[in-house]
UniProtKB/TrEMBL annotation:
Highest taxon, organism lineage: Eukaryota
Organism per entry: Coccomyxa subellipsoidea (strain C-169) (Green microalga)
HAMAP family associated with the record: Adenylate_kinase_Adk
Protein name per UniProt: adenylate kinase
GO molecular function: AMP kinase activity; ATP binding
Length: 238
């Protein structure tokens, strides 16, 4: 640890200490992000995380990490994946239960990609209730399907960090390269119009009941607005 600290500048250490002090005064928040592919969650979630000192729980990333680390839940998930089956809701809820106990989630979390069904929402609420936690806000990113096609087909991703760019709306400084690391950006295989239409149909049929389930906690965002306007809507909602 000391060797790593030697490589960190005093200025960076002071900033980190100040960040921790500031985070110590932040109220707890537990937020769910709901929205179709290309709705802008990936752009806004890092801002929410930083502003409110929350941890970001993306279920896909959590599953991959658990499988790679060969944790008990990760091994169960791998068994299902290898058999070509869906990973059970109980495994995903278990991963969330482990994650919310981490120090970085002390002030709260942003949950992205879960729940997708009412049954999952009920299981999540049951888990959180045992830990004395309740969902405070559900941010529903609403974008017309026609807008999403253009957004998704031009999307570029930095695999290591999850940072997203767009060829037209938010291009990287250097074409095809991440702004921070200079590493290559990729286009996801399923970021095409045909796949998107199928995903949108599934999203609308599954997720509408989830929004109804959380209707007293849900804030609808006009997510096809400019990024700054969406960020302002989120600020008011939280």
């Amino acid at each position: 640890m000391a060797a790593h600290l030697d490589e960190v500048s005093t200025e960076e250490l002071v900033k980190e200490i100040q960040r921790r002090i500031d985070c110590g005064t932040k109220p707890e928040k537990h937020v769910i992000l709901i929205g179709p592919p290309g709705c802008g969650k990936g752009t806004q979630s890092p801002k929410i995380k930083k502003e409110h000192c929350l941890c970001h729980l993306a279920t896909g990333d959590m599953l991959r990490a658990a499988v790679a680390a060969k944790t008990p839940l990760g091994l169960e998930a791998k068994k299902a994946m290898d058999a070509g089956a869906l990973v059970s809701d109980d495994i995903v809820v278990g991963l969330i239960g482990e994650a919310v106990q981490r120090p970085e989630c002390r002030v709260g979390f942003i949950l992205d990609g879960f729940p997708r069904t009412v049954v999952q929402a009920q299981k999540l609420d049951g888990l959180l209730e045992k830990r004395g936690i309740a969902i405070d806000r559900v941010l529903n990113f609403v974008v017309p399907d026609s807008v999403l096609v253009e957004r998704v087909t031009g999307r570029l991703i930095h695999p290591a960090s999850g940072r997203s760019y767009h060829e037209k709306f938010a291009p990287p400084k250097t074409p095809g390269k991440d702004d921070f690391t200079g590493e290559p950006l990729i286009r996801r295989k399923d970021d095409n119009a045909e796949t998107l239409k199928a995903r949108l149909a599934a999203f609308h049929s599954q997720t509408s009941p989830v929004i109804d389930y959380y209707k007293t906690k849900t804030v609808e965002l006009k997510a096809d607005a400019p990024q700054e306007a969406v960020a302002e809507q989120i600020k008011k909602a939280l």
